[in-house]
Each structure stands twice: as structure tokens, then as C-alpha cells.
Amino acid sequence: MLDSTRRPVVVDTSKSPHARLRPLPLTDVRLSDGFWGPRRRANREETLPSQYRHLEETGRLDNFRKASGKMEGRFEGIYFNDSDVYKWLEAAAWSLATDPDPELTKMVDAAITEIEDAQEPDGYLNTYFTFERADKRWTNFDLHEMYCAGHLFQAAVAHFQATGSTRLLGVATRFADHICDTFGPEEEGKRRAVDGHEEVEMALVELFRVTGDRRYLEQAEFFVDARGRGLLGRPYGLHDPSYSQDHSPLREQDEVVGHAVRALYLYSGATDVYAETGEPELLKALRRLWNNMTTRRMYVSGGLGSRHEGEAFGEDFELPNGRAYTETCAAIGSVMWNWRMLVLEGDARYADLIEHTLYNAVLPGFSLDGGHYFYENPLEDEGTHRRQPWFGCACCPPNVARMLASIPGYFYSASDDAVWVHLYAEGSAEVRLNGGRAFRLGQRTNYPWEGDVEIQLDGEGEFAVMLRVPSWCEGGASIEVNGEPFPEQASPGAYAEVRRVWRPGDAVRLRLPMPVRRVEAHPYAAENVGRVALMRGPILFCVEGADNPGLDPRDLVLPNEVRLSEDFQPEQLGGVVVLAGEAEVSPPGEGWDGRLYRTATRQGEKPIGTTRLRAVPYLAWANREPGPMRVWIRSR
Amino acid sequence: MLDSTRRPVVVDTSKSPHARLRPLPLTDVRLSDGFWGPRRRANREETLPSQYRHLEETGRLDNFRKASGKMEGRFEGIYFNDSDVYKWLEAAAWSLATDPDPELTKMVDAAITEIEDAQEPDGYLNTYFTFERADKRWTNFDLHEMYCAGHLFQAAVAHFQATGSTRLLGVATRFADHICDTFGPEEEGKRRAVDGHEEVEMALVELFRVTGDRRYLEQAEFFVDARGRGLLGRPYGLHDPSYSQDHSPLREQDEVVGHAVRALYLYSGATDVYAETGEPELLKALRRLWNNMTTRRMYVSGGLGSRHEGEAFGEDFELPNGRAYTETCAAIGSVMWNWRMLVLEGDARYADLIEHTLYNAVLPGFSLDGGHYFYENPLEDEGTHRRQPWFGCACCPPNVARMLASIPGYFYSASDDAVWVHLYAEGSAEVRLNGGRAFRLGQRTNYPWEGDVEIQLDGEGEFAVMLRVPSWCEGGASIEVNGEPFPEQASPGAYAEVRRVWRPGDAVRLRLPMPVRRVEAHPYAAENVGRVALMRGPILFCVEGADNPGLDPRDLVLPNEVRLSEDFQPEQLGGVVVLAGEAEVSPPGEGWDGRLYRTATRQGEKPIGTTRLRAVPYLAWANREPGPMRVWIRSR
Asked: Does the keyword Nucleotide-binding belong to this entry (chains A, B) (predicted)?
């Protein structure tokens, strides 16, 4: 029984008993701003078509043609390459929902045809396990069969919601049925197994929500519960079971460990399960993990994953800047998880982190031209790390594409008698509250470069507008309704509830002061001792060689008393605020020539002069000529 | 034509045209001190017998029995496991040279029999490439065939020198001949290839020196020259060619990169080649690499290898403390390379680093009980990193054993009319200079815990005693001969030349003041900003939980004005100097509760009290109950 409403929403909690917030369809949200607008245009015009070409040119689509017998030859590439096709399809589906495009529709339909034709009669579908490997299906759970299935399911849900077509959804449910028939409790005559790379869990819950088939939810729950019981053994030989979060049952875990993307996808799926089941122990574990992650194991960018080795979270406070792994996919996984936590109760902490992560950890992975990507996102670099048009392991590019295509779905939520404004950008939304009250909500703002937001409401009756006051807005926000101060407390890191009887033409003005903030890290984060990161509003800044020619950013010292200017520069990097101010240049003294260690002189380094420091948003770094870059700069 | 002198020496530069220093046989050096003595006893009594048991119990010796057909079954373990047997044999041979032991001789002879019997008729020998893999020989140069061969050659040289037996040497030369017949220039009808893991280069030079067969030297030169020309391709899929130093010809390299042990073994082999050929470009490259390593990529312990990923050197100043890889084998490789550089011209920089590395990077890998080892040697730890009795990849344990067994060979050298004293410890040596002058040299000292050394000379005639004044002895040393000040400049980091006409009973007194030094790191080494490491003489100290119960060493702040007491404690950790003094306890303030980043307050942390800080030598850490450990402590 398919959900007849069929509206494209990011995570459909419309009927989830343990979620307070309901999604707004992407199609009801318009972004007409100068920040997301150009990025979403690049996503449509450059990213999606060029990624389709990469899928063709690297043989990823051919693998489906070979599997169906339309083309000669063997599988080519990495065993999880099918997932890139699915993620691209999901991205394309979201894009078609908001921006119909006949050319893109053709590509989507062609890809779906190849997928349909490659599916086995029993529902199984994975082009790596064809021909000589056909009998190796479900024998090695580190080969991402369920991971690929999960991405197929997510793509299918998005495609159905966006287009109404059940073609891909049919493929997905046939495969999901195969998985449900194959895996489960032994007492049901099934196999107990979990996948090395989580993903299928949240996908199954989404499939449940769109089909109404409770079996998929139960299967997701089974996979969440079965993990951490030794089923995977020691994945990949070198890796510990914690690599796949398989070291203990999720409900007993209290530290985020192992491969960061896997972890975040697991937490996302488990949160989806909680939204349906409401089991308190599960939520407790998720909150413990979130607290450990955000207070011990997260970069100032919101980036996650400190180690190249195992693409893993590190120990508490293990946050190297140059060797930060901080995979773009992990940032996306964090947005996905935080969104699911947010809609449970509407706790602004999660929305704060979504905003912060989008600007400072997801977007750095994406070039301004829309065709180049970072896999790793270090917080400092000597100028050698550059975005690539594609990767052999190409998880990040289509992940960025689906995030950008679906971003309107993250701006608002509805609850019984409130509309929730999570993110700010010029644009509008059609809001429908319970009981059928519908109205138009407009945002006029220059966010994220200015902190004034005017919310125009074209509705009638009593309801609340929940305005997120970001945690960075430490001095507090001010709110006016129709020019009069509104008494509601607008404390940072919470939603200000503006509840009243509304009349058409009412307007709320939210003022979020955006002073430049010098941010310091916990003293146990060893690399950042004596350093600050610059933030302004939600935006993290960095010092980049292109703006500071001939200067080693390691030698910059920003005195506390220096006031930084803040200028919006429309010609710079697609239009960004640039910070500038007088800084000291304090290179290592001559006593360090040819030495790495010495008896402490306690003299410190002495400034040899000053320079005009310029800092640009970290999200836009590496879009100009290569040069050194640093987020954390010395201060005094 | 075997060298008839057959005296066990660490690296036999007796006839090397481009080496100034000649080795003293191990058998002519006695260590009767309280530092090396007990460690060498543990090596003989616990390490060597227990390692032999491990070789048996893990099937490493059985692999030879299987290869020769004496035992049923297939190869077991990792493909380079043969090398552990060879390294153990080398260690045992050195030990037998100075300390005959019938039980150990039996084990050695038994192991050699298995090796002899497993050798193929054509000289090839590698038990991994037997049975079904026999036809895979020399097809994948990342499978360590030449690496294993090199360790066989080194063991054979040591065994021949120590015992006069040519049994193992015969095996080695047959295999070396096979390698020389197989690999070389195409124009000689041979295959161009290099091994993924360097080692065979230095082993071939050693084989040349003991046999006089110049072909082995030429083969070593060929392997050094052939590297960096794309022969290896992209080793291990994930790794870059720099992993095996194969990214460019050695003579063009100027940064130490890739797998640290491989790199150090390559540099050692290339230095051996230089000692014979004297090619200036090769020495220039080696000096460039040494400078890069010691001024940019070395831990304060002398440890090398910053990355777990690829067991690799990092970028300049990439020196994380908790995630330091600093493999014990890399420290040993550094001693081996520095020894080879030292004997070229007698530059004290290399001897300084040998001393420093032995105390602070090799010995931490070895437990006081002689039966447990570190593979990785982090400079800080939360109490979870503990020495193990053995490893699946067991390169480090027998490497430590051969270093300890051969350590007397690193104490002295001879040149035409000088004896060189590189290291200090109570003991004696029989010295033979060119022209046959022979005399006994005694050392009376409590080194490394006290800096007074009395050198007693029982010789006659004019010659020089070259006394290393360590670079840590920054205030300069004082020298007396027979109680009278000797005018020779004794500046730190150089050899003081005490040249005169000696009479029996003469004595030289060297005074090396050992104040506690607070060492700071180059300001680009980000984790060490605001911190110092404590050193006294050649010994690096650390703060360990066992001495500072209930204290988080991250919260310690050592004020500059605090004078640390220095007490030798004979009952502690086998007898060590312990440093102690009043330090501040300055934990993160309450403002950090539940936060990882915040707007900078510029207040810093405030001390909440003081505590008696105690610091013990890093070389002895983790020999008591587990607890946190730090080398770098905060200072103000």
C-alpha cells in the first residue's frame, strides 16, 4: 500500500509516532538566495550531468548492462560501484522534484532501465556478484551488498516521491523482499548477518514509510539489533570489529568509533527505527554517542573522522588538522543523523549542528564550479590538496549531489500547531499545519552573510513560528513582530516560540548579531593550543595563500586587540564576506635553523613585522591558485 | 675467499676505502655496567630462548620443515615469517660471540639445519613460495623475497664471524648467487627488479665484505640504482610508490618518505655502498635525507615514523604524540644507518643520534623482563598501550634482540692512530690500532645516570683518544689527563681529540655535566606548543601514572622556576634517576564542561593546586601498572 500523498520529503516522519516534527515537501520550499541558489544551479547544470558521464565512462552503468547480458565483458571497478549509480539517481530524483528537466529525466529513465534489467529473478541485485562470482553472493559481508541495496532503496523512495513512478521502487521492494526472506532470526529459518557497511537500516525504514510494509521496519530493527554480536568477525583482516561498529551492541556503546561514515549511517538508521518504535534504551544510546562525538571527537568545522587509517574517528581530542580525514561523506552522514535526531523532539542542538556542518564540512567538499570534490577535508594544507573531478572510490561526489538537491527539505518542519524554521535563506515555503491550515512563509535575508531575517507570513489563526536562534548567536537575538518587540526569550541554541494569532501580511523580524568570533578549542586538543579559529555567524574562516601571498600562515599571530573588518565582496569566490586586519608575522627565530628540538629558551618567537591578514570562508578554499591554508591561527 | 680474520664486528669497514673508522670486534669489548649489563643478560636468558619458543610455536620453524618435506602441511603465517627466524639467528650469533652458551648453540644449529634442508637446489630459499606457490617466485616484489634473503645474509655473516662455521654462510652465498644470476641489467640477460622492502642491499655489501666476492657489492649497487624507476608499480594497491621509496631515484631524493623501516634500511644499504665506492652524489643524497629527517621528521625520542597509515614518515613537523607510530624497528634502522654514516668520517652528529636513539627509541620497545615488546612507541598514552610477548608481524622482537646482542660493537672504533669512544658505560676494550699497537682501555662510570667517565689506558706511544662530547652537553665538557686539565677544546657535538704520548696507567677524566634540561620543539610542531620535554644527559623522561596516581598528566603545568630534584633510585625500574618537583595542577575549567569549542575567553586555565610531579626515563615506561603517560608536559 503505497503512500498516496507521494510528496518528496527528506525523511518522512509524517506518521512516525515518536517524531514531533513533520517534514515539508521539497517542492513546497523555494530557495531564491545568492548562496544556495548558485550552488544548486551548479548541481543541476554541471554536477548531475558530469557525474552521469563519469558513471558511463568508468563502466559503472556498463556493469548493469553486462549483468543483464546486454553487453559483453566482466564487472569492472570496485565492488561497491553500483552504489554510485544509486546515489546519483537519488540526487537526480530530488532535483527533478524541484526543477523538472527533460534531459535529466532521460538519463534517469535510462539508468533505471539498466537497473531493472539487471535484477535477478529472485530479487537480488548486485552487478559485482554476477558470472563467476554469482555463487559468492552473501558470503562476505564486507563486500557491501546490503550497503548497495540500501542506496538503491533510498534512490527508489526519492524517485517515487519525486515522479510517482514505481519502476525503481519495484526493483527496490523486490530486492528488499529477498533480503527480508534471507536474513533474520534463526528461529524463522533465516540467516543472522549484518553488513560491514551500514546503510540498509535507514533505507529499509524509508521503504517502510513509503510502502507501509512493516516488514521492512522489522528488518531494519533486526539489523540494528544483530550488530555487535560477532557476526562480522574481524573485517578486512587488519581492522578491528569496531571498524564496523560491531564490537558491542549499539545500545551498549558510548563512544563513536571506527569508520566514521559507517558509524553515522548506523546512527541514522537506528534513529529512524526509534522514531517508529520509541524504545527508550535506543534513544539513550544515540544521545550518549552524540554527546561523545560533539564534545570529544569533532572538528571545529563539524567534520568527523580524525584518522586516515580506517577512515575512523579517533580517541577523545585526537583532532590533527593537517591529517584530518573528515570525509565529505561523513559530514553528510552527520547532517543525515542530526536531521533524524532533530525531528524527534525539535531540539535546536541538532539543527545548529546541521547548519554548521552544511556550511563548514559538507560544502568544502564541493568546488564552486560544481565539478570537483574533496574526499578528505583537512583543516590545514600546504597547497597540495586539490579537489578532483571523480574518484576510484567515488562515494563523495554523488553524496554531495543528493545533499544539494534535497537541501530545501532541511529548511522547515511542521508540528501540530507550529512551523519550525531551522535554516535561513532568502526564499519561501508553502506550509500546511495539522488541521489543514495552510499559508505562505517568506524569508527575506542576506544570510549567511548578514544576520537579519524577515519572516513574512501570509496565514491566519493562532499558531507558532519556531525560529532557531543559533548557538553561535551568543549575545542573544532580538525579535520584532510587525515592528514591535516580541517578548519571547530568544536565547541562543534554542527555538524562539513566536506564538500569536496571525493575520495576513504579518512579519517577524529576527536579528542575529554576527560579530567575528575567535574560537578556541578545548585545552586537551593539543594542536590548537595557542590558536584560534575565526567564525562569523555560522561561517568558519581560514587563511589562504591566495589572499596572503608570500606569507607562511604558520607565522601569523593575531593579536587579541586587533579588530577585523568584515566586508562582503561580491566578486570574491562567488560572493563571500572577507575578514581582514593587521596581524603580526612571527616566524621561527634564527635559533631554530637546522634544529627540531632545543633546550627551552622561554623567549618565544618575536614578531619581525606586521601584515594585512585576510581570511575567507573555509567552505570556499582551494578554488583559486594553490597555496597554504590554515583554519587555526596563532593568537596572543 | 673468506676473510680469514673472522672477527665479529657490526659492520666490517676494515677494508672499506671510503670509511675512516674501523670496527672493534664485539668480542674485544666488555660491558660490565649496571645499565646495559642487566639488559643484555635479560636478552640472553629470557629474550633469545623465549623467542626461539615463539618461532617454534607459531610454525615459523615448521615452515622450513614443511618446505624440506620433513613435515606435512602448508606454509602457515605471514609471507615474510622466514625473516624472523633469520633475525633471531643473527641475534643468537652475536650473543654466542660474547657469551658462549651450549643450549643456545644447540638451538642455532638446529635452526640452521632446517634452513639448509629447505634450500632449493638452485639456491632459492623462501618457505612461502613452496608447493602451490612455487611457481609464483619472483612475480610479486611486494612479497618480501629479497627482504627475507637479506636477513638470511646478515644472519649468515654474523654466524660465520661469531663461530667460524660456514654452514649458514654457504646457504646465504648460494641464494645470493641465485639472486645475482637472476637480477641485473637487461643487457646481461637479467631481470630488472627491486624488492618492495629494502634490506638486501646492505646484506649484500656485508656478504661482499666477508667473502671478498665483488659481485655481491655490484648487486647491491644495482638494487640501489634500480629503485625509483617505476619497477615496483604501485605497491599494495593503496600505497603510493613512495611507500617503498620508489618514487624517484635515491640520488634525487631529498625528503624521507614512505614506510620508515624500508627507508632506513635503504639508506643503510646505500651508505654501505658508498663506503666501498665513494661516489659523491650518493653521499650528498644521504646527507640531504639525514638533514630532512633530523630537522623535520623525527620525534624528540629519536623515534621515526609519524603515521600508522603506511607505517610512514609524515610531512615536515607532522609529529603527533599519541598517534606516533615510531616503530621499534625504525629506531633500530636509524641506529644502523647512523652507524654507517658515522664510520665514514667520524662525524659526532651520527654518534649523538645513535646514543639518543638507543636510549630513547630502541629501549622503550623492550620490557625490563626481556620478554615483552612494543611495535609502536607513542609519546603519550592513556594506559592502554602495553608491550606484547610476540606479534603476528613479529619484526620488532628479534630486531631488538640482535641490537642488544651486538651493542658492544657500537661502543668504539679505531682509525689509523686513534681510538674513538662513541658510547659510555662501565667496561673495557682491547684496542688494536694500525701498525699493531694494542692496548687495553677501561671505562669507569655510572653513565647514563652520571656524567663522569674515567678512561684508563694501558697503552704506550703516541695516539689519540677521541672522546665524544655529546651535543646535549651544552655547557661543554672538561677533560683531565692524569689529574691535569687537558687543553683540548671539548665542545658539544664533537669528538675531543686527546692526543699525546701515552704511558701505561694513564687516565683521562671526562666530565659531562648533566643538568636537567627542558627541551622545546620547533614552533611548527603543533602539538608541542607550550610544552617541554625533560631530558637529563642522554635520557628522555616522561610522566607516568604509576608515579603520579590520580593525576591526569594533561593537567600538569611545570613552572619555569621550579628546580627538579634528580635522585638515582636503585629499586625503581631496575635502577633509574627519578626527577621530582612541585608542579601546578591546572585542569580545564568548568566552562569546558560538555564543550569542545567556545568563543575564546583568553583567560587560560587556572591552577587549582600543586602536586609533586615525578618523571621517570621514557625507556622504562609501561613496566608497572597501566596509567597515563606523557613525554611532553605543559610549562609556563
From this structure: no
Half-sphere exposure for A362 (CA within 13 Å, toward CB): 23
Task: Return the C-alpha cell found at A66.
Answer: 553486462
Which of B145, B199, B311, B376 is catalytic? The answer is: B311
Model confidence at B237: pLDDT above 70: no
DSSP state of B564: P
Are B295 and A596 in contact (CB < 8 Å)?
Answer: yes
Q: What is the mean pLDDT of residues B576-591?
A: 95
The model's pTM: 0.95
- What would the DSSP string read from start to end of A462-503? EEEEEEEE-TT-TT--EEEETTEE--S---TTEEEEEEEEE-
- Is A315 at the interface with chain B, CB within 8 A? yes
- Residues of A forming the active site: 311, 395
Cα–Cα distance measured from residue B111 to residue B113, given in angstroms and rounded to the nearest whole number = 5
A550-591: pLDDT as tens digits: 999 999 999 999 999 999 999 999 999 999 999 999 999 888
CA distances from A628 to A546, B69, B211, B510 (A): 8, 60, 53, 49
Structural contact between residues B7 and B79, judged by C-beta atoms closer than 8 angstroms: no
Q: In terms of DSSP bridges, do strands B609-617 and B478-481 run parallel, antiparallel, or are they unpaired?
A: unpaired
B237 to chain A: closest CA residue? A392
Q: How much is the pLDDT for A605?
A: 77
Helix (H) or strand (E) holding A155, with range, is: helix A145-163
Question: How long, in residues, is chain B?
Answer: 636
Q: Which amino acid is at B19?
A: A
- In 3D space, the residue among B219, B192, B190, B194 whose CA is nearest the CA of residue B204 turns out to be B219
Band of residue B102 on the pLDDT scale cut at 50, 70, 90: very high
Phi/psi at B500 (nearest 5 deg)? Answer: -170, 180
Percent of chain B residues past pLDDT 70, beyond the cut: 99
Task: Assess contact for A385 and B315: CB atoms under 8 A.
Answer: no
B463-521 pLDDT per residue, tens: 999 999 999 999 999 999 999 999 877 799 999 999 999 999 999 999 999 999 999 99
What is the ipTM for the molecules in this complex?
0.95
Name the pLDDT band for A434 (thresholds 50, 70, 90): confident
Q: Give dist(CA B328, CA B331) in Å, integer.
A: 5
Q: In chain B, which residues have their Cβ closer than 8 Å to the Cβ of A518? A: 599-600
- B533 to chain A, any CB pair closer than 8 A? The answer is yes
pLDDT at A203 over 90: yes
**Which of B519, B529, B600 lies closest to A600 in CB terms?**
B519
Report in angstroms the alpha-carbon separations of A555 from A124, B316, B456: 58, 15, 52
The CA-atom distances, in angstroms, between A146 and each of A77, A353, B298 are: 18, 29, 44
Q: Among A133-142, A448-457, A596-605, where is mean pLDDT lowest?
A: A596-605
The yes/no answer on whether domain B413-511 falls in CATH 3.30.470.20 is: no
Q: CATH number of A22-410: 3.30.930.10, 1.50.10.10, 1.10.510.10, 3.30.2380.10? A: 1.50.10.10
Tell me, yes or no, if A296 comes closer than 8 A to chain B by beta carbon. yes
Task: Please state the rounded mean pLDDT for residues B141-159.
Answer: 97
Residue B3's pLDDT band (boundaries 50, 70, 90)?
A: low
Q: Which residues pair with B307 in a beta bridge?
A: B312
Contact B522 A600 (CB under 8 A): no
**Which of A239-253, A448-462, B167-181, B601-615 is predicted least confidently?**
B601-615
Running DSSP on this structure, what letter comes out for residue B536? E
Domain ranges of chain B: 27-300, 413-511, 516-635
CB of B115 within 8 Å of any CB in chain A?
Answer: no
* Separation between Cα atoms, residue A466 and residue A441, nearest integer Å: 12
User: Do residue B295 and residue A635 have CB atoms under 8 angstroms apart?
Assistant: no
